[in-house]
Structure prediction request, 298 residues.
Amino acid sequence: MKRRKKNPFEIFGLTPKLVAELSDEVLFKLIKSIYRVLQLMYHPDKGGDPRKALELNLAFESLNYEKDPEAFRAYKKAYVERLSRKTLWKEIEELESQNRKLTYLLELLKERFWQYLCLGSNLDQEPFRRGFALKVSLIDVVSQLNYGQFTPLRRRDIFSKEVWLWKDNLALRKKGKKDVFERVKSYVVLGTIKREHFSPWPFLSRDFKEEQMFLKDHMKRETFIKEALFFLTPELKPNHYLFVYLQGLKDLVYLEGLITKVEEVSAVDFLSVWNKAKDILSSSSQSEGLKEGLPGDS
Prediction:
């Protein structure tokens, strides 16, 4: 689509309604005042944008009522006519049509991206080095939010977690001071979201116990796609929320916790712990049994 050339009045931020209502003399005084302020702001010697400064100078020369009042009136008439109510409505309709198309494409891309993530291929190659697994330390932020006020400071380590990640969607997990790891199969790491970029709390499922509301550590798949997928990144870094997906529970996305540290462990250590760990995903059909070993349960 061909880019429309700006009218000089538009560059000074004046609305067509205001331009139409003011007399030529008063309007030019207003433009001069705006020009002086913007000139100081965008002057190259003061660290401003040279291109913006040039645009302002050209616009002011075009609207210099003292030098060329006829040109001033011609720009004024064109500006008011071109941005009349009828033209504005037409532009709004065009923008709404474009917005509907872009919204449809965005939703389509989100769904396709989700399908790709569910294949579990996003961590198959990177960031694993040959002969190493990843050890991710986290804070169970959901449990901390639910029970932190009832927990003494000396026992706050019960909200810590460890997740060891290996290729082929295999993972080991332990909570707090527990020595025994849980062995998790079909553990798909969807990715992470930086804490400052997304607040998960409004979108998590809720439960009511003894007249109090408790957050659950998961949200519906549709909610995650709509609200969180846009912010997702494949990086495993501290200060990022870790989101995972379990093949046995396809309608939910789990907030594993807030990453505090990422380090490597040898494949030998991973396999040694794996062989001793308790397998919590022995059957994908036992959905109730799966929930007992999912993040956030104590």
